[in-house]
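Quick question about two entries, pasted in order.
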Amino acid sequence: MWKQTHMMDESSSEIKGSNDREESDQHRHQMKSLADFGYHFDKDGVMRDKHGKQFVFTDQQSYEAIGEAVTEEIYNIMQRAPYNLRKTHFGTACNNDEKSFIFHTKDFDNKEYMVILIHGRGVVRAGQWARRLIMNESLDRGSQLPYLRECSKRGWGVLVMNTNHNVFTDREGRQRTFEGSGSAIEHGINVWKQFVMPSKARCIAVVAHSAGGIVISNIMEKRSCWMEDEGRTRIGCICLTDSFFEAPSLEKMGKSSRPCVRHWVAHPSKEIGVPLPPLDDHDVYVERVTAGTNVHEETSPVAIDDIFRFIETIFKEFNS
């Protein structure tokens, strides 16, 4: 039920073995920075070389290496002004090198309103929706930075999951999984328990792209994460962008306890937010609308204004 049948991975052909390529923090000083490759993001967020030319694909190996440098660059951008996000490790390991991490705004857990961002599968990490769009178009097209700016303008707290951050290389050169973040779902569940549940947020919105919908639907089905009255008391809405979502518990919830779920679907229509019929009888609890683009990875940037109008409406309803 509620399956987006043409869902793709964020980086299509380049995702193979992406988690196996993840480097630990202790080895990152050996990784090249974006500047080492001769690239930078200009004032418009476009990736250019020293001659002002945009990125041009040459071969898969260099694409992946530059892509990893892009990941580190976005991590750094999120921690600098104007975003000023905090990077927080979690897990019981003694070393941060052996822990996964998330990003969040200062005092996110004390804000009245919170937005949680969950990317899809593949090579993307926290701060990204689609690597291809970041490298070939701009940060505004492929990163989560515009979402961070919109939340900041409204004074909302933000938590950015990092669900593909699953493995690291230990000091002996062995590949190991992070405790509590061995998979996207495990990462999501543990972040939810450790950071979202204890927060003081009165109303929470989730934005999940692609396989991020699988993460939030698994959180919803986990009784230790999603108490019987969680939807009624705190989770205002779930915003999906061309996603995969299956939460049987929605059918069992009463109207007052069911979060509003809206799905912006890749569709030939260039109009945004046009209602679409349900896929099947079970889809009645997920409102499907057009995303304004027929390209899977473009749905999050194209539908952003409509998504924030929806979240604002839900947050206002919680105030009434």
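Here is the second entry:
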Amino acid sequence: MKSMGVIVEYNPFHNGHLHHLEISKMKTNADAAIAVMSGNFLQRGEPALVSKWSRAKMALRSGVDIVIELPYAFATQKAETFAFGSICLLDAMHCQSYCFGSESGDIGAFTHTIEKLERSEDRMNSLIKENIKEGMSYPSSVSKAIASLGLTGEGHVDLTTPNNILGYHYMKAAREIGTAMKAFTIQRKNADYHDEDFSSATIASATSIRKALFSEGFQQDVIRQYVPESTIEELISYHKEFTIFHQWERYWPLLQYRLISASLDELANIYEIEEGIEHRLKEAAQLASSFQEFMTKVKTKRYTWTRIQRMVLHVLTNTTKEQMISHCHKPSYIRLLGMNEKGRKYLGMVKKELSLPMISKLSSAKQEDIHLDIRASNVYAQGLPEPYKAKLMKMEYSQPPIQL
């Protein structure tokens, strides 16, 4: 069986994801589709709308054959680390290919840009450092460095757009680890990654779908035309079982407590906190009455909203620099979240050849490997009222892989 991989968050699974999945299968001529999916917290430093189990079920019901979890140490990182962990896991699953969505849609342009950047890597890093010293954010520093090196225009990938950036890092990671996986890309349709409003009759960004759910209350008709019916059913099921959807505001009291009660030294030891920003975080926590207000007070030209969200997520989960650095070199396990009949057949073929241990029960996992994920899931459950909080925490230990 030929397998292809996709790297996803599915927050939630929508028609754009379905289009990407179907075209990816067709382009790669794959028999099985394997999704490496972020767990309960995401790359932009946000809690997922619904749990990883619910999102895995959405994926399986829409045509994914196997869902594995991208560990917290990679899922909540900058694009480079997020991509590296994802590619390593797809390679460990013996995927023959992987396919990503991009604004470019031109795999040749990605290859050309990567090759040119490799030859200019030292100069590129030097320019980025200079730009950061001038007070620019990391994304802006990279964009300016790329322009300075003349790596823009025809034949190059625009590395100022979010999906092109991720695609570049997927392909760069694949070259670094020497995988035989072939890369494919599909041009994204209609909605931009961060669009907050519905801009098409059938395709909308996950951001706009979440915004509609939170602002309108859970009115399924508001999003029905933008998501598969199976996603609607899973959202209804989750809301019925746990009463809410997750968003940062539900964690604000916990975050505020952590920021106010922790010492400056303790905060400075948290992953991604640097350059004395702990002072700014602490001061804003004492003044703000909501997460939105807190973020507005903290954000600067140098620190993007996403970077601050990741920072404070690590405060919330109490993830130190030492802990994160020791876990983010390379994935050490494959956490199986779910599979269908085709997925079971594929696993039966490759399981003995997997280069990493596969975890289907937490009791079989080395605690030192997986404790960051367990802690993150327990913190994620704190956004729920009782008795649902205890129920979701228990699922981390008791839930077997979903089988459809």
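Reply: Strands lie at 3-8, 32-38, 66-70, 97-102, 182-187, 334-339, 358-359, 402-403. The CA atoms of residues 56 and 67 lie 6 Å apart. Hope that helps.
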